[in-house]
Amino acid sequence: MTHRYATSRLCRLPLALTLAFGTGAGFAQQPSQTIKVGALASMEGAFTVLGQDGMRGMELALKERDYKAGGKTIQLIKSSSNGSPDSALSAARKLVEQDKVDIVVGPTSGSEGIAVKNYARTRPGVTFLNGSSAAQETTLREPAANFFRFGTDGAQWMVGLGSYAVQKGFKKVAVIAEDYAFPYSQVQGFMAEFCKAGGRVVDKAWVPLGTKDYSSVIAKLPDGIDAVYVALGGADAVNFLTQYEQLGGSKPFIGGSITVDQTVLSYKGKRRDALIGTPSASPIADSWDDPQWRKFVAAYKAQFKDGFSSPSLFAHGYYVNTLAMLDALDAVKGDLSNEQAALRKTLATVPVKTPTGEVRLDENRNAIASIFLTEVAKAPDGTLYNKVVKVTPNVNQQLGLSKEDFAKMGLGSRTNPECK
Length: 420
Prior knowledge:
With about 425 residues, this protein is of the alpha/beta class.
């Protein structure tokens, strides 16, 4: 009995060891061959068309790499928001806490980005890359160590526009903008330069996101202005432009970046042609004659027959941030150990080559990149596009000011800055 019992135990020992190492320590030591990436975009509400094109940009970057990076397969999981901070937070939480993603790319809109940045701080094991969200506060105020933005912010996007507007004779303007973080940044970026060049902003009208009726705002525009600076996007911009036309508005526009983006230029209406000649500034320019940009535009148009005549700044933003993620994953061979430390070091320190030039990050993990001064033009086929007037390289978040002077000015808000 004793001999048979000992033999039986010895026979079972290899199986016991196999089970122990196969389902326990040995299994835990084998990294997954799949990296789960969450895509967060505004696919509902006033910014639906913006989020849809952002998603096109992300999918294009992934398709160009065959959904692989660092020797591993990328599994894409999508989550939608409606442009509000609460919805973006809910969508981010779903991706991280339910879908268990390793990396999040998004969101679309400014205040959404602030909410996701704050959430990122509570999830140190997940890396977050911005989509197209461009509020200054996201990276300038209490930045999160695991949140990276390879696109510039809304104030950076305005570099060159203020002084150009004054050169065109627009010295007295009124502002109409949506009442949230991103337009605050846009208006500040415009006014910082416009006021210094001798321009005056005589009135500001802040409207809720998703406004349908602009008649009272249009009726209250001051007399004697040279132009209207408009910082509205998506359905809001289309509604305003349509109603301005219907009410007989005739003042020229100065465009916020998303007001004359492809997501708006494709709308139909008589006022559409009145946009021709509208100056703006942006992280992209449709007509930029650069081989890498032309390659990006061709790939976008070939891949998305339902897309725009040229990729929007939202497609560009998601594409660039996804590209940065893929390059970094390749560099670290897909290593996500130690709370993704190697991945984050690479993201923070290695420049990325993009369709609009090389991008590098500052100490707050925000992009330093080129900004394009543009004017709306009409192509022979009747489509509207933004032609390049000037390219300003290496624009940082301080807008060319010293850190001390920028700190004195403070971040953009409903009341900051002023120059009446």
